[in-house]
Structures are given as C-alpha cells and as structure tokens.
What does this fold into?
Amino acid sequence: MQAPAGREEEPEDGADRTPLLGESQPGTVPTCCSARYNLALLAFFGFFLLYALRVNLSVALVDMVEPNTSLAKNTTSKVCPEHSSALNIPRNTTGKKYSWDADTQGWILGSFFYGYIITQIPGGYFARKIGAKLLLGFGILGTAVFTLFTPLAADLGVGYLIAVRVLEGLGEGVTFPAMHAMWSSWAPPLERSKLLSISYAGAQLGTVVSLPLSGLICYYVNWIYVFYMFGALGVFWFLFWIWLVSDTPETHRRISPIEREYILSSLKDQLSTQKSVPWEPMLKSIPLWAIVVAHFSYNWTFYTLLTLLPTYMKEILRFDAQENGFLSALPYFGCWLCIIMSGQIADYLRDKQNLSTVCVRKTFTLIGMIGPAVFLVAAGFIGCDYTLAVAFLTISTTLGGFCTSGFGINHLDIAPSYAGILLGITNSFATIPGMVGPVIAKSLTHHNTVGEWQTVFYIAASINLFGAIFFALFGSGDVQDWAVNGRHLHRN
It folds into this structure.
C-alpha cells in the first residue's frame, strides 16, 4: 500500500515503496503517444546515432590501413583457416590507405575517450543548471559534425585524426549525464526501467546497424562515406530534437494535463529543491561508489569488445570484411533485445511482484556481469569453431544488457535530483577502460595468437566478476538522505 497524497509517513524498516504516485497510476495514464514515451523514442534514435558515430571507425579502420602495415607488429593468426564468403563480388579498392602500425591503431581507437572523460561531470552539472535538452542536442550535433571531418583529418595525418576523435569525445561526453538529468524530471519511479531501457537501447541498436552497414560501405563503395552518412543523419536528428523536446513536463507544449500531473506527483518527494550540490556527502556515499566500481568493470569488457571485436573476427577467426561487420554486430543485437526485455521485467517485478528496488538492481547486475565473464572466457577456448565462437561472444554481450536495469539506472534510485551528476562521476571512471583497454589489448596481441587473446578475455572477465561482487555487497535502492530536503530516508 502506498501513502495517500499529502502524507509524509516514514515507511516501515525494510519496506521498499514508491513515494506519492498521486491519484493517477501507470495503468490509467496512456503510454501510446504520451510525451514521456515520445521522449524515450527520440532519445532512442539519438543514442542510436551516437553509437553509430562512435563505432564506425572500428570497422572503417580495418579498410583504412594498408594490408602490409596494418599489422606491423602483429601477425595474422594461421591457426584458423580462412573463412571467406561464398559470394565472389569485386570489392571497392579506391579508398585511401595509411601506414599505421598496430600501436598507432590502438591510440586512434582509444583517443575518443580522452575527450569523452573530460565532459562527464561538467555535463551532469550543467544539465541541472541550464537544462539537459540543449546540452544533449548540441553534444550529438557536435559529434556528428566532427565525424564529417574525419576523412579530411585522416588525410592530413594521424595527429589530426586523433584530435578530431578527442573533440568527438568532448561532444559525446555530455550526452549520457544530460539524459539521466532529463529523466530525473520525466521518469515516474515505477516506469524508470522501461523508459530508460528504451532510450539507452538505441546505443546497442546503433552498434548493430553501424557495424555491418559500415562493413558493406567499405566493401562496395569507399570508407569515407561511412563518416559522411552517419554524420549527416546526426545533424538531421538534431533538428527534430530541438523542435519536439522540452526539459520538463511543465514546459512541454503538447503534454496532456493528466500525464503532467501523474509525472509531477510521482516525483514530488524524490526531488531536491536546494540550489547547491551536496558534493561532500555525495562523494562519501558508499552506494555511489558501488555503482562506480560496477560501471568501470562492465565497461572494461564492453569497450574491449566494442573496439576490437572486428579485429578479432578478422585476425583470429579470419572472416572477410563483408562477413566481419554482420558477425561483429550480432552480439549487440542480442544485447539490444536483452535491454528492452529486462527493462520490462524489472519494472514488473517492482510494481506487480513487490520486489524491492535494491533486490532487482543487484540481481540484474549479477546476471549482467557474471554471465558475460563466464562466456567470454569460454570463447577463448573453442579454437576455430566459428559457430561456438560467435555464439559465446553473442551470449556474453547479450547478458550484459541486464546491467542497464541493474546498476545502469541506479543513479536515479539513490539521488534523482543529482542523477546527471552521479552518472557523470561514474561514467568518468567507466571511461578509463575505453582509454586504456584497446591499448593494453593491442599490446598483448602483437602476434595475434589464440593464447594472447585468451589473456585479454581473462583480464576482462576477472574485472567483471570483481565489479559484480562489489555492487552486490554495497549497492542500494533507496533515495539517500543527502539527495533530498530534510534528513529522513525516502525509499523507492
């Protein structure tokens, strides 16, 4: 039972309630064509393009580098036989090639994250101060514009390309904190998992589409059009975002009165009105550091595969460039499906089965981190069995989708008013794997042997396991007392 509107009863110890949902319940407020689900859909396409802009270089780089120098220090594995497509279709050979060795490629792939890490915390802070709509919109627009300049930068030299990738990272760094800040004003507590999983699932689908499509463009046309096409789509999306989105339900021009009242009443006692940010108690919060550790650990595996899976497919499993994109995308298609499904299940368990928020978050995090660790290690021991290799990597990445409804949205559980800042903090730490992971993996795989890649998988799986255990021990599902006005604890 939830407390009636207007009362501020302290929940019983151990209870896990959503405070003050008001008279309107989720079942009585339409979801079809609603403002909050329209926001989720637009955000979905925004993050779709964001990840397409991020990962297209992983595929294009294979085609940008001269074959005789792409592995200056690396040697293509001869353990597995070449597994090429039966289609005998001539490929395009007009794309310009560059003499970049393996270490240089590692720095190119990792350079994005040096910009990305800088704007995480500022992104969360300014989203709360000036509004998340413009910050997120211009973040994606900036990423798209710099993507359009990628072919020119590559032609000017590797230093220019690295600089452009760093600038792309600066623009993209504000997007996730800004989106979290926006959802703190838009997502009713019992719909958080659904709404956030829809919006952030766009990132996975962007990876699914970008990897094979980039491969096809490289194979049949020219790698430069990978950057031109996705960059142009990013600019086009920005126009719709500016036109259709508002920072809060109060300022939305087309929202229905019943939906506005439902959202505002459901968040009434979860948001803080204080102007200053409680930095000291925030940074001393153990539940926040539980998210930091889980986020860092998960991203080590995620970014390692995101940037190097095309290389692994080519150099170890020896798929040709055309197949490479499709098979590299398959794990992220599974992850996309898992994110959508797990968001629905998480809110169902909290709303209908009365499971506590912390129980759902910890369970989903354990599944989403231990499962991938097991199958990632297994993938290193199947030799040249292509079917099992793709299956294990797909299962590993798919199970990771549970983390979105685990630690991934836990910021909104423990401090809704500061969710953007909290995500900026955790994502700053979680960006470090993107900076050093590809460089370390490249340095460990100079000869591209199966044993070297097993080491890469072992490291990622061990870090994943540690993060899962840490979050299970110290994670929380309650709104922290420093995150609201007053000293009592609100429970979700």
Observations:
- The longest helix spans residues 321-351.
- Residues 29-82+99-269+278-483 form a domain with the Growth Hormone; Chain: A; fold (CATH 1.20.1250.20).
